[in-house]
Amino acid sequence: MAAVTGAPTDLQAHRDSIRLREDRLVYELREILGAKLVAYLGSVKETRAVRQWADGERKPSAEVMQRLRDAYHVAALLHQHETAPVVQAWFMGMNPQLDDVPPARLLREGRLEDAGPAVLATARAFAAAG
């Protein structure tokens, strides 16, 4: 991910989550989280769908794409500070700030207007704690 000199990492992650083309965003998210976790977030059973999204052969629904954009924002922010395996573990693990619900589950099953901001706030706290 290309960073803007002097821009806070959260702001850059936000900008990229909005500006990246759908296929590129899915590709980048898959690079950080892995195909299985992206498939889970996208509510599909096969990683083939994730590959097709990343290759531009198929498009996710608007709701799924918004969930993936939210997930990318969080993943990109965390990946500025942590390795991909740590980011993956953070997404899948129980989180005390989210009532022990894994962030991936909340992003997949929660109301879009609530889940994204809650997971992002938790990610910001995790990144700030180092």
Description:
The protein has 130 residues and is an all-alpha fold. The protein has one domain. The chain is 69% helix and 0% strand. It contains 8 helices and no strands. It has helices at residues 9-19, 22-33, 35-41, 47-54, 62-79, 84-92, 103-109, 112-129. Helix 1 packs antiparallel against helix 5 (62-79) and helix 2 packs across helix 5. It is globular, with a radius of gyration of 14 Å. 36% of the residues are buried. Residues 1-7 have low confidence and may be disordered.
Derived structural class: mainly alpha
Number of strands: 0
Span from first to last CA? 20 Å
Biggest sheet statistics: none
Q: In terms of quaternary structure, what is this?
A: single chain
Secondary-structure blueprint:
Elements: H1 9-19, H2 22-33, H3 35-41, H4 47-54, H5 62-79, H6 84-92, H7 103-109, H8 112-129
Helix pairs in contact: 1-5, 2-3, 2-4, 2-5, 3-4, 5-8, 7-8
